[in-house]
Write a structure and sequence with these properties.
about 325 residues; alpha+beta; Ubiquitin-like (UB roll); 5-stranded mixed sheet; 13 helices; 5 strands; Sterile alpha motif domain-containing protein 3
Length: about 325
């Protein structure tokens, strides 16, 4: 085939976006073909190509040479994610800086941020971002709303629930509404006709998705949601009655009942607790060691407070460092 003849191909961007593309000239190399497709379709991300090979009953194969393509080929776009290289100095650093101490002290805590004034919509997968970008352009030019498929809606809601969980496991109604409003503000093609706020459906869907996400977290052993899952005793130890006494985390509690830090079980943390008691019996306790051990055992203390509700005298005896001036200030930062 000559390189100057037109080329007609069937291009698969996603399962829901399949297009007929006509190129003025037939590219001589795969790189040239990719360049022409980027220019023709306005694609701003890197990708490779696969094509349906007639020799294998039209199964997809990687495209390495344009001469392999039939006269009117079916080609599929495969987005390529680029990894940012990290130097060995950043990975294998043997310095004992204050920053490393802070990272160690925060490791047991899953949520370190309070709910933002303006919720920042996270970046979705490459496929979803592309479809939303194209739909936004169509909405701004012709006012056409995107018809959201079940699969697309699930991907959007799941990513939003994951992002919301970074702040709280139990968002309030205004917080759900702020996320829904931020979503249609960033992606206007997702607005809902007939809705007063243009996002009532998204708000309700977020509530259901967040409940599903909490269920997944509970099943994976996440304590701060498992503690509230004792409905009719189904999830209570030994079939005990529902956990009516135990409250949900309040608005200001961002680390209500975190999991134990990686690599530590209750026995290991009990050992750290005994080390703390021994250290506090010294005339001059090691402040850095006390801080590290207190941060390390934070999840164990929260578990005791929430589940056992011990008396103050018991806490003073078991956690003497908790009532020092430094730890009182540290609790405000947690």
């Amino acid at each position: 085939m000559t390189a100057n003849q037109k080329m007609t191909l069937r291009l698969i961007l996603t399962e829901a976006d399949i297009r007929k593309v006509i190129l003025n000239t037939r590219p001589s190399t795969v790189e040239d073909l990719i360049s022409k497709l980027k220019e023709s379709l306005g694609l701003h991300y890197n990708f490779s190509l696969q094509y349906q090979d007639p020799d294998f009953n039209n199964e997809l194969c990687n495209l390495t040479d344009t001469e392999e393509l039939p006269e009117k080929p079916t080609v599929k776009v495969i987005p390529v994610l680029e990894l940012v290289p990290v130097s060995s100095d950043e990975v294998f650093s043997d310095t004992t800086s204050t920053a490393e101490t802070e990272i160690l002290s925060h490791s047991p805590q899953e949520r370190l941020k309070k709910w933002p004034e303006f919720f920042d919509i996270p970046t979705f997968s490459v496929d979803v971002e592309y479809r939303l970008r194209q739909a936004n352009l169509l909405f701004m030019s012709e006012g056409i709303y995107l018809k959201v498929t079940k699969e697309l809606k699930h991907e959007i809601l799941e990513r939003l629930a994951e992002s919301m969980y970074c702040y709280t496991a139990y968002p309030t109604a205004p917080q759900f509404e702020s996320v829904a409003a931020a979503l249609i503000s960033k992606h206007p093609c997702l607005q809902e006709r007939g809705s007063t706020t243009r996002c009532c459906g998204w708000k309700n869907s977020l509530k259901h998705e967040m409940a599903n996400y909490r269920t997944k977290r509970r099943q994976s052993g996440c304590l701060d949601v498992a503690v509230n899952a004792g409905k009719r005793g189904r999830h209570s130890a030994g079939g005990q009655p529902a956990n009516k006494r135990i409250k949900k985390a309040k608005k200001g509690e961002i680390n209500y009942l975190p999991n134990f830090p990686d690599g530590f079980d209750q026995a290991a943390l009990e050992g750290a607790c005994k080390d703390l008691v021994h250290e506090m019996q010294k005339r001059t306790p090691n402040g850095l060691l006390v801080k590290q051990k207190m941060d390390q055992t934070f999840a164990l203390r929260r578990k005791e407070v929430v589940e056992s509700e011990p008396a103050i005298s018991t806490m003073v005896k078991r956690w003497p460092a908790l009532f020092t001036e430094d730890q009182v200030c540290s609790r405000k930062r947690r």
